[in-house]
Amino acid sequence: MHILAFLIRRLFQAVIVMLIISIIGFSIQDQLGDPLRELVGQSVSEAEREALRDRMGLNDPFWTQYLRFLGNALGGDLGTSYFFKKPALEVILAKFPATFELVLGATFLFVSASIPGGIYCAIRPRAWLARFIMAGSIIGLSIPIFLTAIFLIWIFAVELGVMPSFGRGETVTLPWGWRTGFLTRDGLLHLVLPSISLAAIMLPLFIRLIRAEMIETLSTEYVRFAWAKGLAARRVWFVHAFRNTLLPVVTVGGLQIGTLIAYTILTETVFQWPGMGFMFLEAVKRVDTPLIIAYIIVVGMIFVIVNTIVDLVYTLINPMVKLPGAQG
Amino acid sequence: MALLEVRGLEVAFPQGPRDEALALRGVDLDLDPGERLGVVGESGAGKSMLAFAILNLISEPGRIRAGSIRFDGRNLLTLPPAEIRNIRGNRIAMIFQDPMMTLNPVLTIGRQMVETLQAHRRIGWAEARKLSIERLGQVAIPTPESRFDSYPHELSGGLRQRVVIAIALLTDPEIIIADEPTTALDVTIQAEIMALILRLCRDHRVGLILITHDLGVVAEVTERLMIMYAGKVVEEGSTRQLIEHPGHPYTRGLLAALPQRVARGQTLNQIPGTMPGIADLPAGCAYHPRCERAIAGCHINIPVLEAHGSRRISCFRPLLAGAEA
Fold first, then answer.
1. Does A92 touch chain B (CB under 8 A)?
2. What domains does chain A contain, in order, with CATH numbers?
3. Does B87 touch chain A (CB under 8 A)?
4. How large is the average pLDDT for residues B118-146?
5. For the segment B159-212, what is each residue's pLDDT rounded down to a tens digit?
6. B119 vs A225: CB contact, 8 Å cut-off?
């Protein structure tokens, strides 16, 4: 019952957020230059262009155009890509698995490295390894992702020649049309460098975050009490301190997943990764307005869904928080 | 021999890159089985420091610089970590000051009890649960079965302190160290909690080290008293003797400051000045700037704890007229 009330409330909020995103997304359409220039050649006369504009509804007032767009969007139609001549949503969804798997790979990497790293730096702050990690994390924070990516390509693809430098490699199409690179050796190999590049953005941030929160938790009275009860160090660290460390980390971490999606644009471009981000940059170059708008809306939707999941997870690990809007 | 015997305990904190300041300056303490000892002093006198030092739980950057803590004949300061863990929370348990902060907010009461038992015994969940609920009942928590599954935030401060006491009792300890166990509670509940601690210690013959700044509480609960000032014991003796005939000017000052000793309508007494911090102790007796009996020598020499009959006082001019038989 609680979960249901929470979800209904969340759904309502999501609708409002999506409406705002769609208005902003749609309103950039007029700022990206004349779509007809891309659609038709130089030879078409101005009169013909005007007729075409009328037919496409580009001369209608903004709100008329927006409402038409909204009506279509509700039916799953986000416009037709000028370049691909296919529904924009279809184009994006075909690219979605690649981006999703890249984000998943990067998340797996930075989560599995930052948790032990952060905990270690918190419980052994004076160890040389902890100092080394902390110093390294500052450097890591300040290196832009395309530099990391190009550096990795140079070392592992060019000099050592052990890693592929671009593309997804061999993929397998699952029954529901999802193309995955997880199931082949080649696909996984192709995932390594892009995932590391993308994870490198998050890793230093999370190590520092986990360390700072953990140090704070370790100095609380309940951790002192846990020691006074004679518990083993492992239990004090991982059950008493780390569970409380997780609360703020999950909140901040959830917000960072948005940043991660933003950085896929850069990563995918450097590695020619056939995902949504790479597609988006190409769409911008081609002034493929419907595709750009569709991308903004799909990414907005991912944000809303991820944040809802994060809120749900938070309530699961923090007994003091009742789901908002689900009292009683 | 005493069950717990602390000798010359010094706790130091770094002061700048080279120097250290002493939070405890050579403290002795003895506790016999089942004995109840009060440790009294102003905030910052080192009472809590003493409590944590006994369990070897001084947190960084502090450290125990000198002294010994013998419990049951073994020095806790030289025991390997696994063995001291066997004593902490098992044979010497502790009750903290603020029950709102002592229990872990994300774990149920039950888990925090069972884990304590399982840290010290080979015991299954069902049996540990049964024992925990029994203890919750002993500290007069209503419907202990349902409280077992509660989270700390679902309980009031008074109930939480009862839970903390129940946790301390779980393993039938020989000594309980209670660090200002009622300070953070509502006045109406303070007496109840104190009575509970006293009853449990008496019934189970558990030794108690009660740390407090409240001489009124100590008078009712403890048999022996230790007065601390600026990291040192200034007077030590039977509770009754110290309260009726304080030997150290500081003890007398504390007693005179009790509101119940002042007639209605009169100004409350106070000791002039404040206690010096550990980093800026005056030369000589640390109390001399506030002492109305200070003489020239008090500024220069540090007095030592000397026996005066059955008590010990650290003062060049103790108040002894009529105090000793």
1. no
2. 90-275 (1.10.3720.10)
3. yes
4. 92
5. 999 999 999 999 999 999 999 998 888 888 888 889 999 999 999 899 999 999
6. no
